[in-house]
Amino acid sequence: MINKKMVTIMLNMIKKSRLIRKIRILFLPIVSRWKKYTLLYSLIGKKVKILDVGCGNKSPEATKKIVSDCYYVGVDVGDYNQTTDSIKLADEYHIFSPADFANGITTLPNDFDLVMSSHNIEHCNEPEKVIKVMCEKLLKGGILYMSFPNSDSVNFPHREGTLNFYDDPTHVYVPDFDKIQVLLKSEGMKIIKAIKSYKPRLHWCVGLINEPISRIKNKILRGTWDFWGFETIIIAEKN
To answer: Does residue 233 sit in the same domain as residue 121?
Structure first.
């Protein structure tokens, strides 16, 4: 039976979660301005249509928690680090074979407000075709968010969790920062932000503190990617 005390605890938990949400909305643009989830927090309350290209790691659940009113379409080559509950939250969920990934995306409508590709393009057999198709799926004024390994990471140290590009055996394409921007522009996209080696200051400081332990354990820790600038980010708008 639910008593008054339990109700009070539940209400306090809700208030606390709302407070945490507000704090995140306030500080995320400061501490990690160009991260994917910072972009998603800017869409809270908006009825947008989102295409998530490479939607593993429970991305449907994470996205819906932030932008609950969005229409979410996830595509991938398999259920990578996914759960049944996360998949159920997607309005559409499509699995395409690696060989037919780009062609599979072409079957979707060209009416998305946001297309996200977070650490996916480096796994694609036809990366340029996938990039072109992602641009095609956007409405005019729509946003493309891409993040992928910095091409310089081919010379980074090897660590568990991937610091050197080749630590992940499923990486098949080393993304070329400049060529991708040229390709995007040829597809009618305007580059809003392009950072080859993303090192947000606060996260970089955390990585600096953790770096000796990361080296000793030979393992990725919080802030390691930011310290090394492992991640490249490109954000573009469709003209």
So the answer is: yes
Query: Quick one: which H or E segment has residue 45?
Result: none
Same-domain check for residues 10 and 119: no
- Both 60 and 13 in one domain: the answer is no
Q: Identify whether residues 58 and 173 lie together within a single domain.
A: yes
DSSP 3-state assignment of 60?
A: helix
185: left (phi over 0), alpha (psi -120 to 50) or beta: alpha
- CA 231 – CA 224 distance, rounded (Å): 11
What pLDDT does 60 receive?
A: 95
Q: 213 and 108, same structural domain?
A: yes
Contact 115, 132 (CB under 8 A): no
Q: In what order do the strands lie in the sheet with 138-149?
A: 92-95, 71-76, 49-53, 112-118, 138-149, 231-238, 189-195
What domain range is 5 assigned to?
Answer: 1-30
Total of domains in the chain: 2
Q: pLDDT by residue (tens digit) across 52-71? A: 999 999 999 999 999 999 99
82 Cβ partners below 8 Å, 6+ apart? 55, 56, 57, 58
In tens, the pLDDT along 106-136 reads 999 999 999 999 999 999 999 999 999 999 9
H/E element, 203: helix 201-217
